[in-house]
Amino acid sequence: MAKVIDTRTAPEAALQEAVAVLGRGLPIAIPTETVYGLAADATNPEAIARIYETKGRPRFNPLICHVADLEMADRYVRFDPLSRILAEAFWPGPLTLILPVRPDAPIHPLVRAGLETVGIRVPDGFANRLIAAFGRPLAAPSANTSGRISPTNADHVNADLGDRIELILDGGAAKVGLESTILKVVDGSVHLLRPGGLNVADVERLTGSKVIRPKGAGATIEAPGMLASHYAPHAGVRLNARQVTPGEALIRFGGTALPGEERAAIVLDLSPAGDLREAAANLFGYMQEADATGARTIAFSPIPATGLGEAINDRLERAAAPRN
Ligand code: TXA
Ligand code: MG
């Protein structure tokens, strides 16, 4: 079983052990503000191979590189002016930028799945301290078996990967609860590759222009690895439910009761007050909790698609997609 160290009560021990295990080329689970990551030395091909192996993830799927600050990022990637403005405004935070890798940068091609670009981000909190202490970038996908729900606390990680990794750093519940928003600047326009924990409206306010959506007119860029079926609980997922079938688990929003919910296996409300930020933070944990009841289906009541609701609905659609 994995050793669990709490970063809030034993930060020095956590740093020391984490740096040691990472230095041996092994992946460890770390808390970030978005979701828990399965982190390994981005310059070590064996360490990267172990991430894919531990997750059971297809190799063609590139990983996000985590660095401690903009200065460190500059050593590995080249910034265009607009990407730099985004980085300065939103790092540390739930933003990943796709940028050309410097030809001499020691980020292994396995991290990039052979691409000439790399997804890079500066996480907040303890992850940031850890990278600074380790001194090298950390590649980190979410710390879950490929296709399953992303973990937002250390218990989720332990239940899923606990017998496959040596060390889990426990930093409590993830603040944001959704993976980072992935943006790519092309010819001076910002493209959205994955909606996530950074509100796109905040980006548009900063740049003064519209972010281009993948399905929007003329957009051709797709983030590799964005599989339709993803974030899947064991139970089936039913979206936009207006009533509950007996025995279903219900995850609702905004404090609105649904007909039939008194016979649900469990009733959870993502945010009784209708706050999308709170809903995002609760989403994956509630999916785990609903799943644990053994209900055959999880019904979701409609969630507004504005602000962080865009990313929430993106994850729900993937969770509801036919499984392969
Ligand atoms: O919040 C997050 O981003 C979390 C935490 C742990 O930081 N990490 C995460 O990583 O979600 P991951 O590996 O699940 O996301 C990787 C995704 C790929 O599936 C792809 O969509 C995109 O990032 N990506 C990475 N590198 C890319 C590249 N060079 N070009 C286009 N997309 C890329
Ligand atoms: Mg993931």
UniProtKB/TrEMBL annotation:
EC number(s) from the headed UniProt entry: 2.7.7.87
EC top class named in words: transferase
Compartments (UniProt record): Cytoplasm
Domain spans labelled YrdC-like: 12-198
Keywords: ATP-binding, Cytoplasm, Nucleotide-binding, Nucleotidyltransferase, Transferase, tRNA processing
Record Gene3D superfamilies: DHBP synthase, Threonylcarbamoyl-AMP synthase, C-terminal domain
InterPro entries documented for this protein: DHBP_synth_RibB-like_a/b_dom, Sua5-like_dom, Sua5/YwlC_C, Sua5_C, T(6)A37_SUA5, TC-AMP_synthase_SUA5
Catalysed reactions, semicolon-separated: L-threonine + hydrogencarbonate + ATP = L-threonylcarbamoyladenylate + diphosphate + H2O
Pfam families registered for this protein in UniProt: Sua5_C, Sua5_yciO_yrdC
GO molecular function annotation: L-threonylcarbamoyladenylate synthase
Entry function: Required for the formation of a threonylcarbamoyl group on adenosine at position 37 (t(6)A37) in tRNAs that read codons beginning with adenine.
Sequence similarity: Belongs to the SUA5 family.
Protein name: Threonylcarbamoyl-AMP synthase
Source organism of the structure: Mycoplana ramosa (Mycoplana bullata)
